[in-house]
């Protein structure tokens, strides 16, 4: 009886969580302009209008630049932080790593407002660059969490064997360590890209006059005629996000299998 109740609760919870997402493609292909049942008919016009919208194309370009730049920066910095935290002991190690991971627990609006105040105080003009800085700060803890797992899974005897064979620290890192943690690096890149692409609050505060996809969607929700196009865009974003997260999880599990450690969970 308890098992049956738990099963019902799990199903109800999943429906509550994912039903709105499942409704996106239904209304994206619906010919009616009002988001309501019953559906009127099948159409792909909203996707055509989405592609033809110049402002949307600009927002998409900005979001891609921001997401790629933030993912590369967050992952690159995450490699150094994860390597240092898993391989070396240094003063105030716990406190430093805790400060780096703080964005995981702070409300995003607090982070966004703090960054806005600091950037304006030092005279930095709001632009795509400031959004990249904010998203890098936000994505770094996720990248470090993934990369720390990858570095922790390494057998240190492989690195020591490279030293015994005459390799320097840099060449051992480049030739031995990096190939082994590459699945984790790819997973961190994809995760950071997805987080940056979908992030709204920091982009809303720091983008200035440059639109991103989330801020564009927010601005268009005030116009009823634009809602079906937003549904079409939301459908595309959900599909891309699911694909990227699936790839990230694939590379994470591949890294775990490659190092011979047992899988302890994932992201999807």
From TrEMBL:
Highest taxon in the source lineage: Bacteria
Chief site of localization: membrane
Listed GO biological process terms: transmembrane transport
InterPro entries tied to this protein: Bact_Polyamine_Transport (IPR051789), MetI-like (IPR000515), MetI-like_sf (IPR035906)
TM annotation in the entry: 12-39, 59-82, 94-122, 128-154, 175-207, 227-251
Gene3D superfamilies, sorted: MetI-like
Recorded topology in the membrane: Multi-pass membrane protein
GO CC aspect terms: plasma membrane
Keywords on record: Cell membrane, Membrane, Transmembrane, Transmembrane helix, Transport
Domain spans labelled ABC transmembrane type-1: 60-248
Subcellular localization, as worded in the UniProt entry: Cell membrane
Cell membrane among keywords: yes
Keyword Hydrolase carried by entry: no
PANTHER family per UniProt: PUTRESCINE TRANSPORT SYSTEM PERMEASE PROTEIN POTI (PTHR43848)
Family the UniProt entry places it in: Belongs to the binding-protein-dependent transport system permease family. CysTW subfamily.
Name of this protein: Spermidine/putrescine transport system permease protein
């Amino acid at each position: 009886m308890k098992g049956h109740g738990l099963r019902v609760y799990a199903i109800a919870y999943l429906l509550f969580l994912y039903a709105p997402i499942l409704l996106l493609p239904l209304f994206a292909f619906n010919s009616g302009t009002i988001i309501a049942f019953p559906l009127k008919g099948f159409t792909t016009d909203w996707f055509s209008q989405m592609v033809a919208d110049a402002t949307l194309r600009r927002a998409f370009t900005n979001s891609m630049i921001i997401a790629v730049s933030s993912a590369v920066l967050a992952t690159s910095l995450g490699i150094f932080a994860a390597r240092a935290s898993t391989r070396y002991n240094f003063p105030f190690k716990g406190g430093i790593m805790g400060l780096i991971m703080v964005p995981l627990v702070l409300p995003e609006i607090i982070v966004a407002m703090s960054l806005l105040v600091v950037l304006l105080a030092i005279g930095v003009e709001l632009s795509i660059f400031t959004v990249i800085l904010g998203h890098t700060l936000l994505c770094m803890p996720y990248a470090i969490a993934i990369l720390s797992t990858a570095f922790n899974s390494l057998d240190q005897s492989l690195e020591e064997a490279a030293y015994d064979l005459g390799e320097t620290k840099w060449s051992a890192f480049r030739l031995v360590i990096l190939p082994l943690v590459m699945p984790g690096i790819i997973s961190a890149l994809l995760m950071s890209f997805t987080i940056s692409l979908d992030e709204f609050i920091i982009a809303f505060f720091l983008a200035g006059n440059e639109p991103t996809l989330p801020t564009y969607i927010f601005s268009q929700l005030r116009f009823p005629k634009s809602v079906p196009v937003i549904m079409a865009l939301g459908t595309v974003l959900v599909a891309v996000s699911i694909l990227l997260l699936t790839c990230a999880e694939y590379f994470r599990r591949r890294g775990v299998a490659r190092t011979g450690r047992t899988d302890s969970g994932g992201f999807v």
